Amino acid sequence: MYKDLLAENDDLNxxxxxxxxxxxxxxxxxxxxxxxxxxxxxxxxxxxxxxxxYNDEIIASGRNTVNETKNATRHAEINALDALFEYCNxxxxxYEDLLKDCSLYVTVEPCIMCIEALGNLKLGxxxxxxxxxxxxxxxSVVDRHLEYRYMEIVKDIQKEKAIELLKRFxxxxxxxxxxxxxxxx
Length: 185
Ligand SMILES: [Zn+2]
Hints:
Helix content: 40-55%
CATH superfamily: Cytidine Deaminase, domain 2
Number of domains: 1
CATH topology: Cytidine Deaminase, domain 2
CATH class: Alpha Beta
Strand order of the largest sheet: 2-1-3-4-5
Bound molecules: zinc ion
CATH architecture: 3-Layer(aba) Sandwich
Number of strands: 5
Mean pLDDT: 87
Structural class: alpha/beta
Radius of gyration: 18 Å
């Protein structure tokens, strides 16, 4: 029991400082998702990046390309799924078999469209950074996860970093956004 309490406290502490072994593990994969998000930002896209991990290896990745393609469905997760389908084609693997053992890391909570796609494809595990208060499908707007209970979900992994990137995008994109003008007197 004391051990359980310790473990519980440990979990709580870890949740707070994000330094548990598990968090570090998630963060190591999330790093590449952030690289993709950064790439999106540099191309004038909403900075969201995503990687799909199978057997401790990144087998697919994607970033937002909505503006570039003028296609509102080209979210990071959808692009990563397309990359995964290609990977499966080349390797002659079934994506249905593969996805249940895959972890998908994305810097922002998947929207309703993406969580439906991931749920229907029976993704095994989803790890995301910050919440998506406008379109989130994992609890923020609706909770489609209730429908897809087999999918394990971990949230708030480096959420501050994800929020910071989004802020940079929205500040930069909107010419009417307030600049840091200092009053001279
Ligand atoms: Zn989406």
